[in-house]
């Protein structure tokens, strides 16, 4: 089955793509580039770098612009998915939804209207097992933004490794955040994945941080052989 | 040991993670053992070694399972507890003679029930009483005067089974006539003039259940209750 993956460049969409590649054919990645930082559906730091990730994976990327206004952005998502269906002949969509009924049900409706399968392979996954898999399966993921207490300015840019995961677990236990950042507590960016032919190396970045809100902006990066 | 049956379009499909794995996690967390078998491997019979069977859901476009008549025969012959979730509810109802019709719903629904059945034996704190009491009628187990509880359930289905003759509704939702989805798609009623549809049904005499919504999303208590009852409890 030919599939399109809704691709933000964060760990969930990249891991969902990895799972899809193990079972079916991924024909394209689909990125919605939202100009609204408060978007419910699409905003992610460093969204422009999905182009480099697609190049690293050698999978075509369909990029679609959206103003990111609530509900209108769903019309834009439908248009993007429809375009992917026409251009790549996809029969289904894959998302990295973990627990968000808001996101999952809206994508389900769009897929239904376009007569496409909808796959959410991380749906209600055991979050601890999943985070361990991200590390064990060879993903290189960094924290690209933090948006809740108690994350300080040292968190943006950190690699999610065993030590980071152990700290995240402690924070989860104390502050009741989700381990995966499902509640928007943090965002991530994937530099390398098992299906990437080359890996992304960050050359320059800057970080803005204030009151438990910090975003790592990657300003320069290049692809390197693995 | 509980048997979890995968109804997805093929064994080891990409849908497995979404519809089967969350149920496995709940059973494992509840401390019970389980096996997973794809429905195509049942060969018309549910092995006797299992204490009960859970039939999981499938993707909205995935309806292949309904063509397997030997699956329905196996369910009909099986005399131990069964619960079918979404697509699994179609299997349970079809096995007992219920037809399947088009009825689409994607999203959260307000679900009402009266706790007369053992499946409601352990109601979590987040579920609230609606303030109403069950009316004196033959459905909702006929428990006149019982409190009515409400909770939110996640539905993703394009079809719904008619309730077979020997079944009763244990929980239901309302169809809002003329309601539209976000893209203007009308929500069709179960049947002309009907304002409610069953979310949870049970055979009158056997512990055989069908659930339209997905309890693995936000309502794991129902699956835990079923597992506990089938592993030593009493229905």
From TrEMBL, chain A:
Entry annotated with the keyword Cell wall biogenesis/degradation: no
InterPro entries reported in the protein's UniProt record: Diphthami_syn_dom, DPH6/MJ0570, MJ0570_ATP-bd, Rossmann-like_a/b/a_fold
Domain (Diphthamide synthase): residue spans on this chain: 1-221
Short name of any one Pfam family annotated for the protein: Diphthami_syn_2
Example GO biological process: protein histidyl modification to diphthamide
Superkingdom to which the source organism belongs: Archaea
MF GO annotations: diphthine-ammonia ligase activity
Database matches in CDD domains: AANH_PF0828-like (cd01994)
Its EC number(s): 6.3.1.14
Key words of the record: Ligase
Protein name: Diphthine--ammonia ligase
Source organism of the structure: Methanoplanus endosymbiosus
UniProtKB/TrEMBL annotation, chain B:
Gene3D superfamilies, sorted: 3.40.50.880
Name under which the protein is recorded: Gamma-glutamyl-gamma-aminobutyrate hydrolase family protein
Record-linked CDD domains: GATase1
UniProt domain Glutamine amidotransferase: residue ranges: 19-218
Keyword entries, A-Z: Hydrolase
InterPro entries according to UniProt: Class_I_gatase-like, GATASE
GO molecular function: hydrolase activity
Pfam families: GATase
